[in-house]
Structure formats: structure tokens, C-alpha cells
Design brief:
- This protein has helices at 4-10, 12-26, 40-71, 74-85, 98-112, 122-125, 149-160, 175-179, 201-221, 225-230, 236-242, 245-248, 264-274, 294-303, 314-317, 331-339, 363-368; strands at 28-30, 37-39, 91-94, 117-120, 138-143, 165-169, 182-185, 257-259, 278-282, 288-293, 319-320, 347-351, 357-362.
- With 371 residues, the chain is α/β, with parallel strands linked by helices.
- The chain has two domains: 67-223, Rossmann fold; 245-368, CBS-domain (Roll).
- It is elongated and about 95 Å long.
Length: 371
């Protein structure tokens, strides 16, 4: 006989009650640290709300940049760009607090795009580092208020050195603005911060203006991708635009050669000595006739009579007219030649102007270097 306490469990409405409870349990997640349960459906609503807020914050910063772009005057931009492009010394970026961080980034952008630039902290400048500033330099000062004490103290000493001053400011009626040669308006109506306190939209606008200046000057100076790569040797782009085949090819004992009349065994011995899995076959004048790889050796064994293998000559199983490359070609070009084909090439002969093999470049080495 069923106990009364269990009777509800067998009634249809009892199943419904348990199903509701199970659904409620599935929609709850317990924080393992606090032991507090949180309703998942509510959490999903909160996530949707966060996504909406996030998008609005990004839109606000984008709108601030767009507004600054419309507000900047051609004469202001021309003055700033002319000073930067014609700078005979260094471009010195300065700022304090969050503006200082933006100044550091703009200095890095200028340097990487062909304009020598350094960051100078205002406090350090007042304690000896001002000696880095020369009359051939240009100073770019970033400040939201244009009234920061450290900046104002530094101004007379900059003017004493007769160094041109470009100011990227949030307040174009400030003391800094009145002392600058060129003023770029980086003001914003409101920070993205909901309290209108944390520097957000203002620093974003200042950064965008700084980047735009750097890239405009880069175009005026005619910087090429190859020039850019020279400033980024450790990056993939830098390697692709600067590393030459000559920098990576194997030479000397690792670049074995064999005559067209070399026997199969002599070819095996040459490949073994080189250690790269290939040997260049040369004509009597030393020019390249073909290449033999480990794969060519295996295929020769499969096709030949084992009893006559010792009589097989290099010219009979070499790859004639192989893909070649010159030492002064980009290593990335070699990579493309080896990979962009129906069947990949693992070793590429490097030849000089007389088509003489001067090295071997391996696909493995190109990939390992990070191309």
C-alpha cells in the first residue's frame, strides 16, 4: 500500500510538478565558490543585455572618431603633416597619464612607418631628459585638458629650444593650445565611460589622429612594403619581404653535385654526404642539368632490374629542367614555387647567372624560419 506522501508522485499532476522542478533545476547554475545558484535564463538575458551595451559603447567611440574627422580643419592637418614630414631630427611624443600611453603608441607607429620617434615623459624631461630635445626635432604633445601641471612647466623649456610643437588636445582653448604651433582638435562631447570620467573616447580619438598623422607622413615619404619590412624583421611580413634565398640556402658540403655519368651508387653516396635528400646533376661546364632526390632514387629502384642497378647513370633517372631560383630572390618566392603546385617540392636548386648550382634551399628551412 502506497504511503500518502508518495501518492502525489503517481498522479499526472504530480509528474507535472516534478517536471517543473526539474526544468527549474536545469535552468540554475551554482557558483562553486559561493554556493549561490543563478538562474540560467536570467543569465542569458543579462548576456544579451551586455552584448547590446558593448555594441553601443563601440558605436559611441566610432562616432567620436567620425566627429573628430569632420571637425579637423585642412589648415591644421597641413601644418602638422608638413612639420612631421619635413622633420630633420626626431619626432618627440609626450603626454602624461592615459595620454602618455597613447603618445607611446603613436611614437611606435611613427617609428615603424619610417619616421624616427621617441616618447619623452614630462616628469623625466624636467629632471634631465629634456636634453634629448634638439631644435631639429618636432614635439607632439597629447593632452585632454591642456592644463596638466607637468606639461605646463615643460612648455617654456620647449619654447626656449625653439622646437615646433604640435598639440593633440581635448581643449583647444587651453594654455597648451595657445603655445602650440599647430593644434589638432581631439575633443569629445562625452567619454564612453557611463560616469563621463574614465578617459575612453578622448584617448581613442587622440590615438586615431596620431595614427592618421603617421600613415599620412608615411605616404608622403613614399615608404614601400620592403621599407616597412626592414623595420619589422622578426614578423612574418618582415621575413617575407626581406629574407633572401641566399640567407637560407645550404652551400658547401650540403650542396653536393654529381656528373651526368655518375652511377646510381655514386648518386646515393653524394646524397648521403649532403644530408638534404638531393643532389644537383651538372654538365661538363658545371651548369645544372637536373636534380635527383630521394624520391627519384626509390622510383629508379622500382623501375630498374636489380641486377643492372649498378649500371644506371644519373642522367637516366634525374629530373630534367627542374624548378630553380636565384640567390637574390626572396625566400618567400622560393616557398611559393615549392608549395603552389600539384605536388610539393622539398628541395630547390639555387643557381647563379651561369646556371651553375650554388646552393640548395629546403622547404623545411623556409617553414621553420616562419615564412
Amino acid at each position: 500500500m502506497l504511503k500518502p506522501a508518495n501518492f502525489a508522485a503517481i498522479r499526472p499532476e504530480g509528474f507535472q510538478i516534478r517536471a517543473v522542478h526539474a526544468k527549474a533545476e536545469r535552468n540554475n547554475i551554482v557558483n562553486p565558490r559561493t554556493g549561490v545558484a543563478k538562474n540560467l535564463s536570467r543569465a542569458h538575458d543579462q548576456v544579451d543585455n551586455y552584448v547590446s551595451q558593448f555594441s553601443e559603447l563601440l558605436a559611441h567611440e566610432a562616432a567620436a572618431i567620425e566627429s573628430a574627422a569632420r571637425r579637423l580643419q585642412p589648415s591644421q592637418l597641413e601644418g602638422a603633416v608638413t612639420l612631421l614630414a619635413g622633420c630633420q631630427g626626431k619626432v618627440i611624443l609626450t603626454g602624461i597619464g592615459k595620454s602618455g600611453f597613447i603618445a607611446r603608441k603613436v611614437a611606435a607607429t611613427l617609428t615603424s612607418t619610417g619616421t624616427r620617434a621617441v616618447f619623452l615623459h614630462p616628469s623625466d624631461a624636467l629632471h634631465g631628459d629634456l636634453g634629448i630635445v634638439d631644435s631639429s626635432d618636432v614635439v607632439v604633445l597629447l593632452s585632454n585638458s591642456g592644463e596638466t601641471d607637468e606639461i605646463l612647466v615643460m612648455l617654456p623649456y620647449l619654447k626656449h629650444r625653439r622646437v615646433p610643437l604640435i598639440a593633440i588636445l581635448g581643449n583647444i582653448d587651453s594654455t597648451v593650445a595657445r603655445n602650440a604651433d599647430v593644434v589638432l582638435d581631439a575633443s569629445v562631447e562625452k567619454e564612453t565611460c557611463p560616469f563621463d570620467l574614465a578617459p575612453t573616447a578622448s584617448t581613442t580619438v587622440a590615438l586615431a589622429i596620431g595614427d592618421a598623422l603617421a600613415l599620412t607622413v608615411m605616404k608622403i615619404k613614399g615608404l614601400t612594403p620592403e621599407d616597412f619590412a626592414l623595420n619589422h624583421p622578426a614578423g612574418q611580413l618582415g621575413k617575407r619581404l626581406s629574407l633572401k634565398v641566399a640567407d637560407l640556402m645550404r652551400t658547401g658540403a650540403e650542396n653536393p653535385t654529381a656528373a651526368r655519368e655518375a652511377t646510381w651508387l655514386e648518386v646515393v653516396s653524394a646524397i648521403t654526404r649532403g644530408g638534404l635528400g638531393a643532389v644537383s646533376v651538372v654538365n661538363d661546364d658545371g651548369s645544372l642539368a637536373g636534380i635527383i632526390t630521394d624520391g627519384d632514387l626509390r622510383r629508379a629502384v622500382q623501375k630498374s632490374d636489380p641486377a643492372k642497378l649498378g649500371e644506371l647513370l644519373a642522367e637516366e633517372f634525374m629530373t630534367r629542367n627542374p624548378v630553380i631560383i636565384a640567390p637574390n630572390e626572396l625566400a618567400y618566392t622560393a616557398l611559393q614555387l615549392m608549395e603552389n603546385r600539384p605536388s610539393q617540392i622539398s628541395v630547390l636548386p639555387v643557381v647563379d647567372g651561369g646556371r651553375r648550382p650554388v646552393g640548395l634551399v629546403r622547404l623545411h628551412d623556409l617553414v621553420r624560419i616562419g615564412l
